[in-house]
Amino acid sequence: MTQFGNVGRVLRREGLPGLLTRIRHPKRSDSATPRAVLPLRLGSDLRHLEAPLRAAMTLLGRKDEAGIATDPQGPGLLLQTEDDAPLPGTGLILPDAAAVARFLERHAPKGSAGAAVHLVPDGAGVTALTGAGIPHGRVFVAPDLSRLAAGVATGAPPTGDIAAELARWLIAAGALEARQVDPRIFPALRGLAADDRLCLSLPETPQRRQLLAAQKIRGLRVFDGLRFHPAWRGCGLSYVAIARAALAQDAVPLLACEDDAIFPADFEARLNGIRRYLEGVEWDVFSGLLSDLPDDCTIRRVERRDGMTFVHLDRTVGTVLNLYNRRALERITQWNDRDEDVQDNTIDRWLGRMEGLRVVTTLPFLVGHDASAQSTLFGFSNRRYEATIGASERRLRRMVARFEAQRL
């Protein structure tokens, strides 16, 4: 779609407020995780990690050894510590809060501008570096690689949080294919059962996590999502991992949300009513919020139960909060992560084009969307979504009114 075509579509569906919102909140180029250049190379003080890192990659699923270079010179991503001068194309390892503080005192932000990525131990490290002016896309929560040595010598895969943290970093660096990794290495994806609740979130966005935690939603498991370049592909890979884990453990249906969902005060009561309703109908996806109602969407059925209006559709866009049944999870696992068309291949649009898709939603939508948060996919303020979501709900109301009038 051309740029003028996009403008026309926004004006037609959202009016002038939608266009003004996009102008006020443009996409930011510093939000995406940069592509790393393989192989990974180790600085002089990290060469002792070559064997455990290589072994860990193999045990996590990589079938060859091309991801680690024996020669620290030449092309590739050079991993080094904060004691070295930060050079372009490097990955700086800052294993603890003291290392983060020393780095900021010595180098940041001017001296670190060329570094490809900064590996920090937690969200506090992310906040410190981004607060000093380092682009968010260049800061990554990763494990202390020195902890690898003890675990891999036994020939068993890294276990616990170290495995998940290491897999996230290696996938982002391009050294490991996400589909090669058993998703059950991630703590939140182990021991899943039907009707469990997952929330996709990034440890690199501590402010969003704090807002989520403040809502105190019962039984919500937080899954540290995968990062990739561009970011919307990392989101898709995260949902593929969720779907694979759910199907492998027969955890169907499954609730999955994102950490910028706003839960109403009566969320539990409404969700219970929705689950009771879904037991008596055929469905693939329950959409808690249709963020962008597709133009070719068709209403199949409208029913009122338990004080709620249930709308059956054949299309969906949005992953703020959904319930996924088996066919939808199977569809997600088939997503083509090599297709770089952001207009058609984001994971929600891929799912929404499923042939014979059976979608159920409610009016009003079950959840809201935190406009104060920052988009992790495109870097702009979530306020940019407000006009789209509002137009989506208003259009669905008009469609329901026409549908019921025709029935009468």
Radius of gyration: 22 Å
pLDDT < 50 runs, ≥5 residues: 1-5
Q: Tell me the strand percentage band.
A: 15-25%
Helix and strand pattern: HEHEEHEHEHHEHEHEEHEEEEHHEEH
Query: What count of helical segments does DSSP give?
Result: 12
| Helix-and-strand structural type | alpha/beta
Q: Biggest sheet: strands, sense, closure? A: 8 strands, mixed
- How many β-strand runs? 15
Question: Topology of this structure?
Answer:
Layout: H1 3-24, E1 40-42, H2 50-60, E2 77-81, E3 90-93, H3 97-106, E4 117-120, H4 123-131, E5 139-141, H5 148-152, H6 160-173, E6 197-201, H7 206-214, E7 220-224, H8 231-248, E8 254-258, E9 261-262, H9 267-278, E10 285-287, E11 299-305, E12 308-313, E13 321-324, H10 326-333, H11 347-352, E14 359-363, E15 368-369, H12 383-407
Parallel strand pairs: 1-2, 2-3, 3-4, 4-5, 6-7, 6-8, 10-14
Antiparallel strand pairs: 8-13, 9-15, 10-13, 11-12, 12-14
Helix pairs in contact: 1-12, 3-4, 8-10
Descriptive labels:
alpha/beta, eight-stranded mixed β-sheet, elongated, five-stranded parallel β-sheet, 37% helix, 12 helices, 408 residues
Structure description:
There is one protein chain. This protein is α/β, with parallel strands linked by helices and 408 residues long. The chain contains twelve helices and 15 strands. Strand 4 (117-120), helix 4 and strand 5 (139-141) form a beta-alpha-beta unit. Residues 1-5 have low confidence and may be disordered. The longest helix is centred in the C-terminal third of the chain and has 25 residues, at 383-407. It is elongated.
